[in-house]
Design goal:
Layout: E1 6-10, H1 19-34, E2 38-41, H2 47-58, E3 63-68, E4 83-87, H3 90-100, E5 103-106, H4 111-125, E6 133-137, H5 143-154, E7 167-170, H6 172-181
Parallel strand pairs: 1-2, 1-5, 2-3, 3-4, 5-6, 6-7
Helix pairs in contact: 1-2, 1-6
Bound molecules: adenosine monophosphate (AMP).
């Protein structure tokens, strides 16, 4: 079976307040490019999104940005990403980012990243896809979402299988290693 060829990365449009966040986005972008894995992301030229795309492009990787038209000015479309797909809506963006990927990686981020990550988890819960979802933990960034899922299970709002919808990977190297070990059905 073939390995992972394209990964959608969800990450912040800000850099956060720990330099480890930017370092992780850079290392992930470079590592994906070096592994020959195409990077799909939100197309932004700011924050961790920019660090990810800059690193992947700098390492000779293939980068595809997906951005709704109304956001192009606000999030500053990345000037060096030639493969920038414009969608009509946030929902169309999410759908395309889902379709283009063989797997998903969530880096640290804000509400948008959380929204995208939870939505892709719920799509998997509903059986709309079976693609791996990795929460790349950087300085504890993955803990709140994992705890929210655990709480939903503990309160009887989700079955224990909800914990199988995603994996927490301890940092970028572990994330890359996991991606290299996966195959596409
Ligand atoms: P953030 O993590 O808030 O910096 O956002 C990261 C990315 O998620 C940005 O490209 C946002 O446009 C995007 N995003 C996706 N869905 C949403 C949403 N429902 N609300 C806000 N941002 C979103």
């Amino acid at each position: 079976m073939p390995g992972i060829r394209a990964v959608t990365v969800f990450c912040g449009s800000r850099e956060g307040n720990d330099p480890a966040f930017r370092a992780a986005a850079t290392a992930l972008g470079r590592g994906l490019a070096e592994a020959g894995i195409r990077v799909i992301y939100g197309g932004g030229g700011i924050g961790l999104m920019r660090a990810l795309a800059d690193a992947a492009l700098g390492a000779g990787g293939r980068v595809t940005g997906v951005m709704p038209a109304f956001l192009r000015r606000r999030e500053v479309a990345h000037p060096m990403v030639a493969d920038l797909i414009t969608t009509d809506s946030m929902q169309a963006r999410k759908r395309l980012m889902s379709e283009l990927a063989d797997a998903f990686v969530a880096l640290p981020g804000g509400l948008g990243t959380l929204d995208e990550t939870v939505e892709i988890l719920t799509w998997r819960q509903l059986g709309l896809h079976q693609k791996p979802i990795l929460l790349c933990d950087v300085a504890g960034s993955a803990a709140p979402l994992a705890a929210a899922v655990d709480a939903a299970i503990a309160q009887g709002f989700a079955g224990t299988e909800a914990r199988e919808l995603f994996e927490v990977t301890a940092g970028v190297e572990a994330t890359l290693a996991r991606l290299r070990s996966l195959s596409v059905d």
